[in-house]
Design goal:
141 residues; alpha+beta; Jelly Rolls; four-stranded antiparallel β-sheet; 8 strands
């Protein structure tokens, strides 16, 4: 059963912000909960991406070129662009402690999009907004 806290966390992901509750439930049902042990390398910089990860419990360290960039915790996420392409990961993410993740693979995500074609338009709108925001940040720096 999908918990409302998981739906709230998915809704907070910019990529899924335009999804309604029914769409979010479909996405949550297409995902898997995974337990991760401390020290496990969840994604590795330079490797092709194969999924999106939402942290439900625990923390992870994000590193690029062996430099620590951030610590992520519950409600935070990574790998959302891997749902759209399988480009290389731009950072390594390692579990700091025991973690529970909600994982969505590209095939499962594609199935949700195929099941509800209107989601593709919502997704494109969300991506366009993110691109505009990134452009605005790049111009202001």
């Amino acid at each position: 059963m999908v918990r409302s806290s998981e739906l709230d966390q998915l809704k907070a992901v910019p990529l899924f912000a335009s999804f309604n509750k029914r769409d979010l439930r479909r996405l949550a049902k297409a995902s898997d909960e995974v337990d991760i042990r401390p020290g496990y390398v969840i994604v590795e910089e330079g490797q092709s991406g194969h999924g999106f990860y939402l942290i439900l419990e625990g923390t992870a360290t994000v590193r690029r070129n062996n430099r620590k960039l951030a610590t992520l915790g519950p409600g935070q996420y990574f790998g959302e662009l891997a749902l759209l392409d399988r480009g290389p990961r731009n950072a390594t993410v390692v579990a700091d402690n025991q973690m529970r993740l909600l994982v969505v693979g590209p095939r499962e995500f594609g199935g949700v999009i195929d099941e509800v074609p209107g989601l593709a338009r919502k997704l494109l709108t969300s991506m366009a907004q993110r691109l505009r925001e990134a452009d605005a940040r790049a111009i202001s720096h």
